[in-house]
Amino acid sequence: MMKFYTLDNLINLVLGIIASILASFLISLYQGVPIVLIILLCFTLLLTVSNYITLRTKIVTLRSIGIRDWESRPTKMTNTKSCILKSQTKLRFFGITGNKWLKEKDELKKMFARHFSNGGCAEFLLLNPNSEACASLQKVKSGIEILNFKADIISNAKDILEYAEKYDYNVKIKFYSNKARFRVTIIDDDEIIVGLYSYTSLKGNEETPQLILKNQHENWSFYYGFNAYFQNAWDNADDASDILDY
Q1: Rounded distance, CA 24 to CA 19, Å?
Q2: Which of left, alpha, beta for 201 (phi over 0: left; psi -120 to 50: alpha)?
Q3: Contacts of 79 (CB under 8 A, 6+ apart)
């Protein structure tokens, strides 16, 4: 499995390299190592410090536009369960079927209760089970495993709404009818996890790369862009209760 390094890990890694080179340089001076080797160590140290400054500058730039981290695929820190456990007041999800959320049903119910006690809510934006986009996705993805997107969406939406109604939780579901390009999870209006969707790849969406965006109140933050992306889709979607036999 590929080792995942966060931005802070990368900085610490480079600092560790600089410290190692500096220690070697000092030992060389103490032991009377030939001047050529000392010069080489000095050059290596300067090059490493320069690369560190460049890396640090780029990381500061990424964070200034809201990008806190990135992943080549979802990890234990950003999977569905971790999002559920992290959310205290509000969760907004823009996806396709919602299957992963229902796999964590016990934790999901606890999250709804937390939201309720904190005056919060949850909003799920799922693919319209009666849309052409859903039928098209079914044809493309049928080669991966036995899936029934329409049935899954309907079943998941009904399960969530029935449970929310039972306890009077503030949970809403809407359906969109176009092809979503991004999977968006917004946690407590503070963090957004963005994944890519592919309508042609035969691989599952568990392999999607992800961006982790932070609400840092910067003018040009990507956080606001994806927050607006969700809001626009939500405003133009249909209430699930109008489509479901519910």
Answers
A1: 9
A2: beta
A3: 100
In whole angstroms, give the CA distance from residue 193 to residue 187: 8
**List of E strands, 11-72:** 67-71
Taking CA atoms, 91 is separated from 108, 122, 173, 191, in Å, by: 11, 5, 12, 10
Its CATH class, for the domain covering 71-243, is alpha beta
CA nearest to 149, candidates 164, 161, 132, 163: 132
What is the distance between the alpha carbons of residues 202 and 232, in angstroms, rounded to a whole number? 29
Q: Is the distance from CB of 71 to CB of 193 less than 8 angstroms?
A: no
Number of H helices, E strands in the chain: 9, 8
Residue 34: phi and psi, rounded to 5, are -50, 145
**Which of helix, strand or coil describes residue 129?**
coil
Summarize pLDDT for 76-107 with one digit per residue, the tens.
668 899 999 999 999 999 999 999 999 999 99
Picking from 221, 217, 211, the residue whose alpha carbon sits closest to that of residue 183 is: 211
> Distance between CA atoms of 97 and 205, rounded to whole angstroms?
12
Q: Are strands 90-94 and 121-127 parallel, antiparallel or unpaired?
A: parallel
pLDDT in tens, 126-161: 999 999 999 988 887 766 555 789 999 999 999 999
Q: Please name which of 134, 234, 216 lies closest in space to residue 179, comparing C-alpha atoms.
A: 134
d(CA 45, CA 25): 9
